[in-house]
Amino acid sequence: MGINSGTTNSETIVSNGSLFKLGFFSPSNSTKRYVGIWYGKTSVSSVVWVANRDKPLNDTSGIMKISEDGNLQILNGEKEVIRSSNVSNAVSNTTAQLLDSGNLVLKDDRRIIWESFQHPSHALLANMKLSTNMYTGERRVLTSWKKASDPSIGSFSVGVDPSNITQTFIWNGSHPYYRTGPWNGQIFIGVANMNSFVGNGFRMDHDEEGTVSVSFTTSDDFLSLYFTLTPEGTMEEINRQKEDWENNGIGFMSWSRDLLDMQKFSSSGADLYIRVADMELDTETVVSNGSAFKLSFFSPADSTNRYVGIWYSIPSLSTVIWVANRDKPLNDSSGIATISEDGNPLVMNGQKVTVWSSNASNRAPNSRAQLLDSGNLVLRDNSGRITWESIQHPSHSLLPNMKLSTNTHFGINPLNIPQAFFWNGSHPYWRSGP
C-alpha cells in the first residue's frame, strides 16, 4: 500500500505467503466496522489485532490509506480521521506492508518507522514482545476485548512485572488477577503444561536500557499458534491450523488459575520460590535451573495423602526420588512449604502444625533454599555455605554423587569386610559381597 492508495470495506491485503489478511470486519452479532488482522486461511473469528478498537465505524463507507504526510490512517465516510499511526518523523514516500509474521509495518526507503507489533491488541504472536521499562515505567501489554462482539478495551491486561521477581501478570483493571510465577530461565514455574509448549519457545530478555520483555518463537510448522487474552481474563494458547480452535496436540497452555502468592528465598542460581503462609502449594512446582528436577506436593498412585517430594521433570511423578514427610502425610491440599524464621525448611498442615522440618543444627536466619540439577535440595546461609542438604537425608533412591555411609567408630562390621547390605528390619536380607 502506497501513498494515496487505499483499502475499502470490501478489500483485503494479504501477506506475501498468504498467512495473514488485513481488512475491515464486523465481530459476530455486531454491525460495527473495524480494521483488523486475521489468519488468512480462516475466518475473521481468528482476529489477532484491531486498529480502531475504541472508535468503530458505523457503516461500510470507511477507508484505510496512507496520508500525504506518510502516516497510515483510517477515515470514516465524512473523511474524518478516526485512527492514525501518528508517526512524527514520517516522510511522504512511505509504504505499508503486511508481513507473514502478522506484523503490519510502515516503512520509508530505509527503515521501518511504525509497526503493529509495538501496539498490540489482545493477541501475542510469535516474536511479538510484551515489555516494561524498569526506569521509565513504560509498558507494552495485551488488553482484552470487552466481549466477543466488542473489541474495545476490556477489563483485563497482560504484561511483564520486573519488580522483585520478574514474572508475567494478568491485571483486572489495576489489580493483580493472576500471575505466572517466576521465570526460571526456561519456563514460568506456575503455568501448567508450559514444559510441553512447542520448542519451549518462551524467552525473557533484559536490555541495557532497562527494558524487560517476554516473547516466544515457534517453528514454521506452528506459525498458526498464538496466545489470546479473553474477555474473561484467561490467557489461552490457540492453534489456527484448522478452521476450529483446537488443542495443538502437544500441550494446551492456559493461564487461568487463581492468583499465585509467591515468596523468593534465594538471590542466585536456581531460586526456590514457595507460597507464603495461608496459600496452597499443590498446583505449583519448583524447577531446578536446568529443568532436570522438580519439587512440589504430590499424591502417590491410589492415594489421597499429600507429600513433598523431588522427582525427575520427565516423564512423570512415577519418578519421585526423595520424599520429605514420608511418615507424616497431609490429609488434604491445605499444606504449605516455607522457611521458618530460624532458617529451617518446614512442611506444615492447614492448622499450621509442623509435620516435617530439616532440623538443621547450624541453620541461620535469612537462609535460602535451592533445588540443584543433581536433585539435591540445599539450604544455604548468607555466605552461600550449605547448612543442610537432602542427599544427606536420603529417601528410597540413590542419585549420582549421593553417598550411603556408616561410621566405623560407632558401628563395626564383625566380618571386617566392607560391603552393601539390604536389611529386612534388623535382619540381613541380601548383601553385595566384598
UniProtKB/TrEMBL annotation:
Keyword tags: Disulfide bond, Glycoprotein, Signal
DNA-binding recorded as keyword: no
SUPFAM superfamilies given in the database record: alpha-D-mannose-specific plant lectins
Domain Bulb-type lectin per the UniProt entry, residue ranges: 1-119, 272-392
Record SMART domains: B_lectin (SM00108)
PROSITE patterns reported in the protein's UniProt record: BULB_LECTIN, LIPOCALIN
Gene3D superfamilies according to UniProt: Bulb-type lectin domain (2.90.10.10)
Record's protein name: Bulb-type lectin domain-containing protein
Lineage: Eukaryota, Viridiplantae, Streptophyta, Embryophyta, Tracheophyta
